[in-house]
Amino acid sequence: MATACSKTGLRIAAGQHSSTGRKPVNQDFHGLYRPRNHQLVTKGIALAIADGISSSTVSQEASAAAVTGFLSDYYSTPDTWSTRQSAGRVIRASNAWLHAQTRQSRFRYDLDRGYVCTFSTLILKSATAHLFHVGDSRIYRLTGDRAEQLTTDHQLSLSSGEGYLTRALGLDHHVDIDYLRLPLAPGDTFMLSTDGVHDHLGDRDLANVVRDHGDDLDGAARALVDLALARGSRDNLTVQLVRVEALPLVRQREELQPQWRDLPFVPELRPGQVLDGFRIIRQLHASSRSHVYLAVDDTSGVEVVLKCPSLEQRSNPDYLAQFQSEEWIARRIDSPHVVRPFAIDRVRSCGYLPLVYVPGQSLRQWMLDNPRPELETVRALVEQIAVAVRAFHRLEMVHRDLKPENILVDAHGAVTLIDFGATRVAGLQELWAEPEADWPRGAALYSAPECFLGDPGTWQSDQFALGVITYQLLTGQLPYGAEIPKTRTLAQQRRLQYRPITGFRNDVPAWVDRTIARAVAIEPHRRYRALSHWLFDLRHPADDWQGGRSVPLIERHPVAFWQGISALLLAGLVAALILPGQ
Questions:
Q1: If you write DSSP's letter for every residue of 56-67 in order, what string do you get?
Q2: Which of 108, 109, 77, 104 is nearest to 90 (CA)?
Q3: How far apart are CA 255 and CA 429, in angstroms?
Q4: Strand pairing partners for 122?
Q5: Residue 316 dihedral angles phi and psi, to the nearest 5°
Q6: Could you tell me if 378 and 474 are in contact, meaning their C-beta atoms sit under 8 angstroms apart?
Q7: How many Cβ atoms from other residues are within 10 Å of residue 529's Cβ?
Q8: Structural domains of the chain in order of their starting residue, each with its CATH number
Q9: Quick one: which H or E segment has residue 326?
Q10: d(Cα 563, Cα 403) in Å, to the nearest integer?
């Protein structure tokens, strides 16, 4: 057996076999895909199995479409998405397509003859197994002489040998998908099967056959099918077996940027020096974490920015892994308000990040130069920042470090987000064996309250930071002062008081103040459910707001108001009739 950790990544052994059995057509379909590129890290290895319903003459087409479509489309989803997001989206899309095929066919009034199938998939990513399941195909984990069923059959039994599926792909326009994730260990063996096999074999049969065949998993799959046939199976039969031979190293981010491996640190640079064809003009920023330089690409004459990790961080593997992922992230963001990486076609001699140069000043400097901006100017800036942030959220990433220093404003008022060193990527987070620690990752004064309680942060944490920036643009102050970083319990945070903007400026409408107050609410569930909703409310008073006051219920919903009054009067009348009789 291979060792637990392997520098070559996740390694498996697999075997599979399918048979029509005693039926004329095989309505089962199965597949396995092991990528040979970076997607082995970001997406993992996927096995999928589907079983068409016997009452349909087209369900074999549904099975084939479900499996082939999944194995193609899953690997086409963004690398930044989590496994659950990627697989769930694809399975739901397949379900919608199959249901539409039935509705457009001659079987639209008879779903039992339409494009319907069961579906189960096992995805092995990093050191975790992800299971997705709909129907009565099954996924087992085999250990010694035990077979543990990991999925639940979505089937209702009417009598002995008779039943029907309560869940399947294509059965309805909506589908509920069972999801389970499990830690992996070397030697773990999983089996995917259709009911033609597992309905006729006991758990001990499954485990013993696989154990007796040792490393011959194809032979084990064939033996299981033959044994089920011998036991009287009259259905199609399919078995997939996969055994984990080796797990990848605990930290895999270096596999995403192989050009960074073993590169030395960039020495401190001075104007006039040349690094890999970049001529240094001047230093733009320096801190204990990074040094940033303005340079010119001698080949194209274009100005670029070189961001280099500080020498002080050379012994900090977490920081270096995050720094390396910045370029990986930048290449996946497509927004006019997010800085772009500068493409180079030459080998780097050191570890640095080349970015397109964006002329302008930081939002911090802009606020110092414009201490009392017009509300419309603030709206224009905030809306651009929100566009940048939403580009991250669509890819299931949380920026986590929104602050004025990370935002540039050019002479025309155009905004660019320039730093994502603290960004949390759902797809990459799954590569870590242990959860991240040391919250918050961003600037304390702009970090959401939940980050100080150990929460890694969600898109609503970014909404909080953007709300704080909006408040500060208008007032030069912070909505809770500098008190949030001092709190360590929810009770302490709930005692904090929002300071109304109207206390600093009387030209900002009270309904705008209320909108910002909701965006920076202490508890995430009290904030907006979508950034687009908040942006809309920044320009439009809410329906329950009128002339600086909440609109009474009688004006908003007069029918409901009078129904309530009538109910109260009726209750009073009944009480008056009953009480005298007592």
A1: -SSHHHHHHHHH
A2: 77
A3: 14
A4: 47, 131
A5: -110, 90
A6: yes
A7: 10
A8: 5-249 (3.60.40.10), 254-356 (3.30.200.20), 361-542 (1.10.510.10)
A9: helix 317-330
A10: 50
CA gap 58, 420 in Å, rounded? 49
Residue 217 near residue 278, CB atoms below 8 Å? no
Q: State how far the Cα of 134 lies from the Cα of 119, in Å rounded to an integer.
A: 5
Strands of the 361-362 sheet, one edge to the other: 361-362, 407-409, 415-417
Degrees to nearest 5, angle at CA 436 with 434 and 438: 135
Phi, psi of 303 (to 5 degrees): -75, 135
The helix-helix angle for 510-519 and 459-475 (nearest 10°) equals 140
Question: CA-to-CA distance for 559 and 562, rounded, in angstroms?
Answer: 5
> By three-state DSSP, how is residue 162 classified?
strand
CA distance 424 to 395: 11
- Residues 116 and 66: beta-carbon distance below 8 Å: no
How far apart are the C-alpha atoms of 71 and 398, rounded to whole Å? 27
> Tens place of pLDDT for every residue, the chain, 582 residues?
333 455 557 899 999 999 999 999 999 999 999 998 889 989 999 999 999 998 888 999 999 999 999 999 999 999 999 999 999 999 999 999 999 999 888 877 777 788 999 999 999 998 999 999 999 999 999 988 899 999 999 988 766 666 688 999 999 999 999 999 999 999 999 999 999 999 999 999 999 999 999 999 999 999 999 999 999 999 999 999 999 999 887 555 555 665 566 778 888 899 999 999 999 999 998 888 889 999 999 999 999 999 998 888 777 777 777 788 888 899 999 999 999 999 888 888 888 999 999 999 999 999 999 999 999 999 999 999 999 999 999 999 999 999 999 999 999 999 999 988 889 999 988 887 555 555 677 789 999 999 999 888 899 999 999 999 999 999 999 999 999 999 999 999 999 999 999 899 999 999 999 999 999 999 999 999 999 999 999 999 976 655 555 455 565 556 667 777 888 888 777 777 776 555
Q: Which of 328, 515, 495 lies closest to 423 in space, CA to CA?
A: 328
- The terminus-to-terminus CA distance of the chain in angstroms comes to 84
Question: Tokens at residue 274, please?
Answer: 């040349």
Furthest CA-CA distance within the chain: 102
CA 481 vs CA 283, 401, 490, 496, 500: distances in Å: 33, 18, 17, 9, 12
Q: Which residues pair with 286 in a beta bridge?
A: 291
Q: How far apart are CA 524 and CA 258, in angstroms?
A: 38
Q: What is the spatial distance between Cα 112 and Cα 189, in angstroms, rounded to a whole number?
A: 34
Residue 248 CA to its chain's centroid (Å): 22
CB-CB contact of 388 with 363 (8 Å): no
Sheet strand arrangement including 28-33: 28-33, 45-52, 117-125, 128-134, 178-183
Could you tell me the pTM of the whole model?
0.84
* DSSP-assigned letter for residue 408: E
> Token match 């997939």: residue?
240
Select from 226, 198, 212 the least CA-distant residue to 144: 212
DSSP state of 454: T
Q: Please tell me what DSSP assigns to residue 405.
A: G
